[in-house]
Amino acid sequence: MKKTCFGLILLSILSVKTYAQTFGGRVGANIASQVWNTGSESYTTPTVTAMHVGANLNMGETDRLSTQIELTYSEFGFGKVDTDNGESVGPLKIKYLKIGCAIKLHPVKDLNIHIGPEIGFQIIGHRTYLTSGDFGAFAGIEKFFTPNIGIGARYYYGFSDINEDPELKQKNRALQFSLLFRFNSQQLAGLGF
Fold first, then answer.
1. Please, which residues have CB within 8 angstroms of residue 127's CB and are 6 or more apart in sequence?
2. Of 2, 105, 161, 192, which has the most beta carbons under 10 Å away?
């Protein structure tokens, strides 16, 4: 009960205090693969198409620079891989809850280039040989066609080895395409939207 009350109070404070900020979200597709390293050999897996959906809070600092905090459900993994012994592995989709922070450069008001770190926690379909966490970085571009609707593309580069087996290192990679939306705010109005 205390947690529920605290959550409602925090949500109320945020809704009043952050109206000058911009709430938004994104939904789209991940073209995901992995890089596998075994000793001196490296192999990039076939891709698998997966999904992502998330929410964000953009905090304006200047008309050219802003920061954004993100919370995203995102699927990573790899397509079907044929092994040396004639068997197949995959396709595999690994489901994560991702928390990211982007620094966004706005060369013009309806376009941004962004980069930032992201940490993920595996939430569904845990496999015993995989670690529960994933850490990486992303870089991308977003274009808004109206004050509230836009599209985006970014590339995710995983730094973490997500396999517990010391003989095989697996690292996530993904090309992401998103439909973007954001809600009207004082921040957008101040930028001329």
1. none
2. 161
What's the pTM?
0.84
Q: Shortest CA distance to 94 belongs to which of 120, 70, 117?
A: 120
13 sits in which H/E element: helix 2-17
pLDDT confidence of residue 128: 64
Measured in residues, the chain has a length of 193
Q: Record the tokens describing residue 126, joined without a space.
A: 């845990």
Give the residue carrying structure tokens 């073209």. 31
Q: Quick check: helix, strand or coil at residue 145?
A: coil
**8 Å CB contact between 139 and 152:** no
134 class by beta-carbon count within 10 Å (0-12 exposed, 13-18 middle, 19+ buried): buried
User: What single-letter amino acid sits at 83?
Assistant: T
CA nearest neighbour of 122 among 95, 98, 100: 95
Average pLDDT, the chain: 86
Q: Which helix (H) or strand (E) holds 53?
A: strand 48-60
Separation CA 158–CA 33 (nearest Å): 11
Name the residue among 105, 97, 95, 101 with its Cα closest to residue 70: 101
- Could you read off the pLDDT of 114-128 as tens digits, one per residue? 999 999 998 876 566
Question: Contact 179/26 with Cβ under 8 angstroms?
Answer: yes
- For residue 129, what are its two tokens? 């040989």
